[in-house]
Amino acid sequence: MGLVTCKQEREAELQNRQIDTQIRIENQANKRKIKMLLLGVTDSGKSTIVKQMRVNYLDGFNETEVVNAIFVIRNNIIDAFKNICNIILHSDITVTQEEKVLVKLFAYESGKIELMQEVDELNVINAVSGYECIKQFFERFAFHPMVPDHIHYFYPNLDRIASSNYVPTAEDLIHMRQTTLGVHEISFDYTKHIIRLIDVGGQKTERRKWIHFFEGVTAVMFVCSLASFNQTTEEEPKAFVWESSLNKVQNKVLVRSAGKAKVEKPGLINRLDESVDLFKSIRENSFLKMSNFMLFLNKKDLLTKKLTKVVFSDYFPDYKKWITNDNSDVSVAEFIENMFREGLEPEKRMYAHLTQATVTANIEGTFALCCDVIFGKNYEDTNLE
Ligand SMILES: Nc1nc2c(ncn2[C@@H]2O[C@H](COP(=O)(O)OP(=O)(O)O)[C@@H](O)[C@H]2O)c(=O)[nH]1
Ligand SMILES: [Mg+2]
């Protein structure tokens, strides 16, 4: 009898020990898992950062994605020319009688181009891109707010892209614009950790979903396009609902940044202002109070180019009062960073980085700096890196 009890006790103890070991292994695995969220308004560069992580830490792009990119990139170009031709027709740029046919086709009936046979589609893209009116457009209005950012990369590469044997390069895929719908996650090993990086759609209609991913977030990477200072938000008044729902949770009223932009038409919101407001409402969110906040002030290359043609204080008059208001990229970036910091409670730390998400090495380096903070290495409270 005694022996039986002894055996049962030993078996129970063994079982307990096995369960303990299992729990310890699971806890350790969970500790290795780091959840990171990419947030920001649409077109800021979130998905581009995910692409760079895939290039750096996973297998990059597969064959299907590369083939699919041929069509997405050509549609990106058709959409860009649609806007460009529209602006041309409403400007003082001379359009010859011969040019008018295709310029009007792109401006008003671009859907028809997407339905053409590939050879015809390439013919019209090649023809229109060589027009004098298009060249003039790029000389005078390249940084018009209606011109998508990717065209600054695709236009000089059109000879290659609009040819029948085109195979997109990794760089082409990084510059390609594809709106994110829904929520996407990638997972990769980084030092001793497993990073779960979550990418969301930035459109107003998509933002309602964000709050469902706020639990257990180690770091928020908030991405803002520095080049968005002369752009407006997508106009979807209905979708403003999300902001009230997000703020209801934390019981706070959304505060607008002090130096906000001058807006030409009533009802329009400056995209940089929108980004700052969105950042502040997220930074204050109680679910994220334990998270590290990394601000990616992105598209620094486009900011530099844009400032050669556009005067920042025309959009943000408060910049005239800034210490160095020389319209240089450095001073404008500092002003923008300050817009994000203004009004933040001092204990709410934030690490800001100037980035160019289209450059693989730049994102690799910035991500390493962010991880130094997250994993607790020594780190000075940063200003722009
Ligand atoms: N020139 C330039 N283009 C960028 C940069 N970051 C992103 N883009 C481009 O901006 C567009 C929108 O980027 P995407 O990552 O889709 O934005 P999301 O809506 O925030 O996910 C794409 O065409 C990108 O290639 C950058 O630093 N410089
Ligand atoms: Mg995206």
Describe this structure in words.
One of its GO terms (biological process) is adenylate cyclase-modulating G protein-coupled receptor signaling pathway. Mg(2+) binds at residues 47, 180. Residues 294-301 are annotated as: G4 motif. The protein has two domains: 33-60 and 179-374, Rossmann fold (3-Layer(aba) Sandwich), CATH 3.40.50.300; 63-175, GI Alpha 1, domain 2-like, CATH 1.10.400.10. The chain is 47% helix and 11% strand. The chain is built from 14 helices and six strands. It has helices spanning 2-32, 46-57, 63-89, 97-114, 118-129, 132-141, 151-154, 158-161, 170-175, 241-250, 271-283, 300-306, 329-341, 360-374, and strands spanning 33-39, 183-190, 193-200, 219-225, 292-298, 351-354. α3 packs antiparallel against α4 (97-114) and α4 (97-114) runs antiparallel to α5 (118-129). The N and C termini lie far apart (73 Å). The structure holds guanosine-5'-diphosphate and magnesium ion. Magnesium ion (MG) is lined by residues 46-47, 180.
Instruction: Specify the number of helices.
Output: 14
- Mean pLDDT equals 85
CATH architecture of the largest domain: 3-Layer(aba) Sandwich
* CATH topology heading of the largest domain: Rossmann fold
Total of domains: 2
Beta fraction: 5-15%
Largest sheet: 6 strands, mixed
Provide the list of bound ligands, each named once: guanosine-5'-diphosphate, magnesium ion
How many E-type strands? 6
Q: In which order are the strands of the major sheet placed?
A: 2-3-1-4-5-6
Shape: globular
- Give the end-to-end Cα distance, rounded to a whole number of Å: 73 Å
CATH level-four homologous superfamily name of the largest domain:
P-loop containing nucleotide triphosphate hydrolases
Helix-residue proportion: 40-55%
The helix-and-strand class reads alpha/beta
Which CATH class of the largest domain is shown? Answer: Alpha Beta
The run of helices and strands is HEHHHHHHHHEEEHHEHHEH
Radius of gyration, Cα only, in angstroms? Answer: 25 Å
Residue ranges: pLDDT <50 for 5 or more in a row?
236-258, 378-385
